Amino acid sequence: MTRQLMVAGNWKMNLDRNAGRALCAGLASQCRAAHPGVQVVVCPPFPYLGVAGEALAGSAVELGAQNSSNEVSGAFTGEVSAGMLADVGCQWVILGHSERRTIFGETDELISRKVDKALAAGLGVLLCVGELLAERQSNQTEAVLDRQMAGSLAGIDASRLNKVVIAYEPVWAIGTGLTASTEQAQSAHKHLREWLAARYNRTVADATRILYGGSVKPQNARALMEQPDVDGALVGGACLKLDDFLPIVEAARGLRGA
Ligand code: PEP
Fold first, then answer.
1. Which of 7, 157, 162, 246 has the most CB atoms around its CB within 10 Å?
2. 47 alpha carbon – ligand 1 mean position (Å)
3. pLDDT tens digit string along 139-150?
């Protein structure tokens, strides 16, 4: 089974209206037609989803957000529902990012409710999992991944997994300049795929894309995405400049017969 690669950019709380528009316009001009081998997604902050969507219109680049609520609507000041994101043109939402988990205290249980609501709203979900440095050093990586997967996907049945993309993001590699080695990435991705096979079935495991995230740069992107179980990249810092992000997209093009 050939899985289409995905390269997704997480702007986090960066860029402003003009810089975001320019980045999207540049990306759109380079990604006019859909590429059979690579899907490209950008995830700006909420206030810039509209301007990003306009700049991406007519291109093959898809729009995502960085978070959404576990509630559908109502008195939840400061929250943004998945339905609102779909309404303004989002196709994707990142959930369970390590910054949401560690800084904002999101639990697997909360994340699973967000996943449920996002899927119900028709969004695709980029579900992030990954271990802390101390957890890797004490050989707990696989146990942590198992726990996060089981908790974050609790109640999500196999029929809904076709809209879920997993992002393996070792926390020690996010924004640090440290990258997992190709062997570390492949090993974790293979473990996640086997988890999917055990929890769901082999068809789901083979079809589900598992992205790597953590200091992906033009220099290391290709080697990571060449790993058989690495189906693309979730990119933070290097997605903020066209000159960094485009080469990562380019690296994905041409892989897997694309
Ligand atoms: C991220 O935040 O998802 C990420 C991978 O960041 P960076 O590429 O900057 O490590």
1. 7
2. 20
3. 999 999 999 999
